[in-house]
Fold these 3 entries.
Entry 1:
Amino acid sequence: MACNSCTTENGGQPKGCKNNGTCGTDSCNKLTVFDWLANMSLPNGEKPFNWVEVRFKNGRKHYYKNTENLTLSIGDVVATQATSGHDIGMVTLTGELVRVQMKRKNIDQEGEEILKIYRKASQKDIDIWSAARDREEPMKVKARQYAIDLKLEMKISDIEFQGDASKATFYYTAEDRVDFRELIKVFAREFKIRVEMKQVGFRQEASRLGGIGSCGRELCCSTWLTDFRSVSTSAARYQQLSLNPQKLAGQCGKLKCCLNYELDTYLDALKDFPKTDIKLQTEKGTAVCQKTDIFKGHMWYAYEGEWMNWHKITTEHANEIIGLNKKNKKAVSLEEYASELLNDTKTEFENVVGQDSLTRFDSPKPNNKRKNRRNNKNKKKPQNAKNNAK
């Protein structure tokens, strides 16, 4: 859902609010939050929670204490405390949900490093902030060139100015440790600003920059995902996916986060399946598992030496044969268990509409053959009449 000013121009082209991340309704930003407690009033005598959640560039969020008792609501631009000077951000959450979020992230309300909100941002603060944001993109191009000139194996992925334009944070990614002391001197000399270097992981870089995934939707890490759990190739094996790194890797170059979404469901379904490395002992021979169908609960086995002939049985039958083998008994053959599934292979569909043709609603085409036959008969009749007259 976009803000009210995100309309379209003539011809259907998107117009956009052009607020550059400072949309008043906060619905054009990343990691948006819905305050489902906004319409509920506090009990009598209870004071509202005096902490607020403030969002900065590319989804970076921090929690600040409202010591001045300002009347703040979602979408307000505020000046917040920083290490030196002040920063400019947007309020994304107020009230009791902030208490829940701080508890979930283990943020101490009585800690020593408590950051405060100074005031609501004035027009002068917003102008300085906007001018600093406009400098970020050309600075990033130059910063990358300086890193290449110094032959540093690192990538400058993003630059974020502080709200008062007194400091710039350079986010970079690198495989190994990088000695960027000389690079900081070049940045300070060329850009005339205090420089802070911050290394981020490849997943964090993708979440900051954003993009479109192979599914056609915006990246989960840049829209709603806040924690990055480790993803291993075993998640793809459990889901019987092809171990193709080009398909399993996301834009960050690592395994896709969505491989973990349905992993628990697959693990629950696989509890009823026997291990695929267990061989079935039958009187006809030893059978080895070739394929499994997690959704239907079927398994395919083939006798050793007859690898082209697969026999489909259910997981219950496979566990039954394994139970017999543990008792030093052998099943007769796989064909006895596979024959029970032969009757279920055909599916009969009922015709609920009453007509089988998919083009039943199309207008009937004219039959040109009948017209041609009639025209040919009319042409022949005058000739036969002349012959009879003669």
Entry 2:
Amino acid sequence: MDTAHADYDAVWKAAIARYIADFTQFFLREAWVGAPVPASYDNELARCSRDGRLGPRRVDKLLDAVGPDGKPCLWHIEVQVTRQRDFGERMFVCHYRLYDHFRLPVRSIAILGDPSPTWRPTRFDLAMGGTQLSFAFETFKLRDLDDRLAELLLSDNVFAWLTIAHLLTLRTRRELTLRMLVKSSLLTGLRACAWDRRKLCDVFDLIDRMMSLPKALQERVDEEQKLLEGGADMAWKYLWQERAEERGLQRGMAAGWERGVQEGRQEGRQEGRQDAMRDLLAAQLGRRFGQPDEAVQRRIASASVEELERWLLAVVTARSMDEVF
């Protein structure tokens, strides 16, 4: 039993409303083409999705959008964190009631955040005689990203980090002390994202709320994070970002073309993130096991991205420095 009552639903709803462009880029591989801040019709969604026979239904986000033809439409986004027998029917009922209410095309999207690796509802079908109905909706399974956590740590997309937090919260639902260690490492790593202070604090808060902990364990996380607060930490972040982008831009400009500049920016950010990963790993090792010796420091300095990713994940649960490497 998850005695810390992980706050999945409210966190996902808030994140989708605030960062719809990140959502569409991460899950749909599309650019958001609607208004920068879409209006939410959550009250209307709640009314349209009531069903006394099947009991109260948990609903998520209904957003106004613009379709490929430039005409208005609706996006119905469900984040489902437990298996539900009638989930496909639920999506269908919401779809036709929304269409009946608004008379607009509805795009139905389901984010499946449950622990099961096999539960994958994608459609709802009805048939009687020669009458047939087939309703398909878009489904994205968070568990499919279980083996890509290290890759996601390199992303500046809000939903890459929320997905990491969600999956690690699932993994630690019966091991809250381990969740404390994982949460602290994740919040520390979040500081390496190329976001402004406001966005950083907002995403920090979302992850903090999702990975809920009992009071005593949360106080230990808060204490460690306070040590990282202040100007020195933020100055370090902006310093490595600025220098890395400058190195990448110089390489890109040598090609003399816009494509080279774009690739240079990407390469610079990658180098900067790699430097940040080295600093973060050294800091985490120092906090848990004491200052690394020269041999370990040399190993970190020459490590590949893949090695750094593996060690950053290992340091969370390792009982000694030897277990990390």
Entry 3:
Amino acid sequence: MTETTASQQSDSPIQNASRLATAVIENVEEVIVGHHEAIEHIVTALLGRGHVLLEDVPGVGKTMLARSVAASVDGAFKRVQFTPDLLPTDVTGVNVYNQKTGEFEFRSGPVFANVVLGDEINRAPPKTQSALLEAMEEGQVSVDGTTRELPQPFTVIATQNTVERHKAYDLPMAELDRFMTKLRLGYPDAAEETAMLGAVVGNHPIDTLEPVATLSELQTARETVAQVTVEEPVRAYATRLAAYTRDHARLGVSPRGSINLLRAAQARAVLNGREYVVPDDLQAEAPVVLPHRIRTDSSEQTAEDLVGAALDGVAVE
């Protein structure tokens, strides 16, 4: 037994999960320059049993970020390029008749993986997008009356562009609400872009990126996160934040949104080496967990503004 392995076995589950999260973040940063906060949010969603939506203009690294996260975990990775002619069965799989056996055989779609990258998800029509609804919420797929479990752990990381809206479809609210986190990367600053150009001018670092976590380790870390203590005052604070959005918007945060906020906060606590959630954890995750679930009444106030007002106005008791 190596010294490192012995040390890890003697550490607490929280320490092991925190170490895994840090290792994944540092591994992704071998490829992605800058965007440290965004990478942290993706890792908290991964540990919190959530899904991630990356939205921004083309060329800022959305797909590369998703690939880097997937490559950091030694599991099955599948990519779906969403296009206007993509069918639901192209995602979930289809029963095909085998002439030799005289029976139908199920050919699984790319959703049967541990990490699924849905690239430019808003390029496909709502009918195809909805093929992910059951998978994202229940971890299973139903085809022709038969339900099949997806491999665990299971995470969807989807990207969508914010330009050429006339050539894309809006994601249904039922699907948006299933994403734990929605992130925008933005352009890098001058120093970050210069460093990025230096890193990719030769062989791209994604080509040599090695996994730093096994599926078993990731699953154990997820189970550890799920056991992080969330006391009643913290739960009540999350409820008040959600209620504020419902009172001040046409569509406020759903109960699923409140659950996702607490799960993300549990992962944030583990990332910080704690076995209990504090209000700071909710405040760190709320700006990326709540806004995409909100529809405001006024064009002068964005959903992000409303969440900021909730964080400022709702007391921590």
